[in-house]
Amino acid sequence: MRRIIGSILLLFTLTVAQAQVLSLDSARALALRNNKELTISRLKQDVARYNRQAARTNYLPKVEAIGGYLYSNKELALLSDAQKGTLGNLGTIAGQQLMENLPSAVTTMVQTGLINMQQAQALNQIAAQSGPAFQQALNGLGQSLADASRTDTRHMWGGSIMMTQPLFMGGKIIAYNKITNAAERLAQSATEAEEQNTIYNTDQAYWLVVSLKHKQRLAQAFYDLVKTLDDDVQKMIREGVATKADGLSVSVKVNEAEMALLQVEDGLTLAKMALCQQCGLPLDGTLTLADEDKQDIYPTTVQAIADEDIALQNRPELKMLTEAIEMNKQNIRLTRADFLPTLALMGGYTATNPSVFNGFEKKLHGMWNVGLILKVPVWNWFEGLYKVRSARTNTEMARYQLEDAREKIRLQVNQSAFQVNEASKRLEMAKKNISHAEENLRSANLGFKEGVIPTSDVLAAQTAWMQAQSQKIDAEINAKLSEVNWQKVLGTLSIEH
Q1: Are 437 and 218 in contact, with CB atoms under 8 Å apart?
Q2: What are phi and psi of 24, to 5 degrees?
Q3: Is the C-alpha dihedral spanning 144, 146, 149, 155 positive or negative?
Q4: Spatial separation of the C-alpha atoms in residues 63 and 450, rounded to whole Å
Q5: pLDDT for 3
């Protein structure tokens, strides 16, 4: 939906940029699309939404995989070097001991009559012939035992997959999710506030251009009046019915009118550039506003009623402070959870090479495991108590800020309603002054033609007429802006208004 709206606004922007004719709603739409601060505020809203989605994942189990390799210049040994040497010479050692003890044993058996001399000689001959083979076989057996005791742990591989499921985190997960929910609503209210500020600033820039455009026409009309009077006076001087002093006074007024016209034109150019920058349009483009050719900028007046309930319900600033209080409340729970017992379920699979499940084997073997982890804080020197008190104090501060903001908004509502009504009264007075000034100017022109009114009175009437017209323009713009400010104070200012 947002992409569709963005495409429509982009097409609308291109169309308006080509036509270079802006209505107030068009200017608002362009400003809302091209304002950088508003774009940043919308991106912050996206960040808050992503944080809320990330917080939801804390309810789900987390799975982690870990792997590693370790090289060592030495390997672990189950037997010492002396023990390995003994096993490797097991047959030699046993044969030497046998050959040393065999003669005395044979002699004892002959003396006791167990064998005779011929049998003794045969036994000695057999031992002498089979001894080396026996020693060699026994040495091989011992060496194989020594080789089997090697661990070969210089190259080690290992890996593990672990799953952790929180069971009880002291309420931390719930509190954090509520904080992210409040943060998302706060970001949304901040975007709404930025949109209203953008519309308000655009309206001020728009009506400033309209005001200066009307004053440009007024300055041109006043210049034409005094220029015509100057031409008439110069003719009268040549005919001898007017003095040079009259001509000089009128010429001064012509110069003043020309300078005033130049100042208004320069101000109009700068105001249009400011409006173009606000709307994202080229600064050097020609711009025409839909309201700059209207005879009456503010044809009807309104009666403002100070409705505080609407403002307290709609103002985004109050919504932001309310969400800040909610975030501080949850922060208390979040802080308290750091000092409460936590319980989690863990399970996984671990494998290593070499493995020790069947002696030391140069193979990758592993095992499954599952268990519970309980963490209970025992003593922290009241750290948790102090942190909880600090969080509660922040919550109290946020409540006072909200109450203070409500009081100030009530005051703003009454002030803005008074300003709207006052602006309407001033506009009515300005309109009445217009009729008086026009009648005064008509009488002065008529008397001047009849020769009964001096030049100074005509200049005074023209100046009074210009001031009345200028006051009417200012009153209309002031009424328009006071109404916009009133809508902003009520929190109802939007692109539809």
Answers
A1: no
A2: -65, -45
A3: negative
A4: 102
A5: 44
Going by pLDDT thresholds of 50, 70 and 90, the confidence category of residue 148 is low
Nearest CA among 282, 202, 292, 341 for reference residue 13: 282
3-state secondary structure of 346: strand
Phi, psi of 282 (to 5 degrees): -60, 135
Q: Are 207 and 476 in contact (CB under 8 A)?
A: no
Kindly report which listed range (76-90, 165-179, 246-260) carries the lowest average pLDDT score: 76-90
Is residue 427 within 8 A of residue 479, CB to CB? The reply is yes
Residue 247 has φ and ψ, to the nearest 5°, of -65, -40
Provide DSSP, 246-277.
HHHHHHHHHHHHHHHHHHHHHHHHHHHHHHHH
Tokens for 17, please give them.
């940029």
Residue for token pair 């109450």: 403
Query: Which one, of 366, 349, 430, lies nearest residue 63 by Cα?
Result: 349
Taking the C-alpha atoms of residue 491 and residue 315, their distance in angstroms, rounded to an integer, is 5
Which pLDDT band, with edges at 50, 70 and 90, does 284 fall under? confident
Q: What is the pLDDT of residues 121-147, one digit of tens each?
A: 666 666 666 666 666 766 676 667 666
- Quote the CA–CA distance of 181 and 173 in Å, as a whole number: 12
* Nearby residues of 47 by Cβ (< 8 Å), 6 or more positions away: 187
**How many residues are given for the chain?**
497
Q: Which residues contact 69 (CB under 8 A, 6 or more apart)?
A: 155, 156, 157, 158
More confidently predicted of 270 and 235: 270
**3-state secondary structure at position 345:** strand
Whether 4 shows a pLDDT value over 50: the answer reads: no
Query: 126 with 99: CB under 8 angstroms?
Result: no
Q: Are 436 and 465 in contact (CB under 8 A)?
A: no
Tell me the HSE value of 335 on the side-chain side, using a 13 A CA sphere: 20
2-34+171-340+379-490, superfamily in CATH? Outer membrane efflux proteins (OEP) (1.20.1600.10)
Beta bridge partners of 366: 351
Q: Which of 473, 412, 413, 418 is nearest to 303 (CA)?
A: 418
- pLDDT of res. 88: 66
Longest Cα separation, the chain:
184
Q: 225 near 437, Cβ under 8 Å?
A: no
Picking from 487, 484, 29, 488, the residue whose alpha carbon sits closest to that of residue 297 is: 484
- 454 pLDDT band, cuts 50/70/90, is confident
Sequence ranges of the domains in the chain: 2-34+171-340+379-490, 81-150
Q: How far apart are CA 402 and CA 319, in angstroms?
A: 9
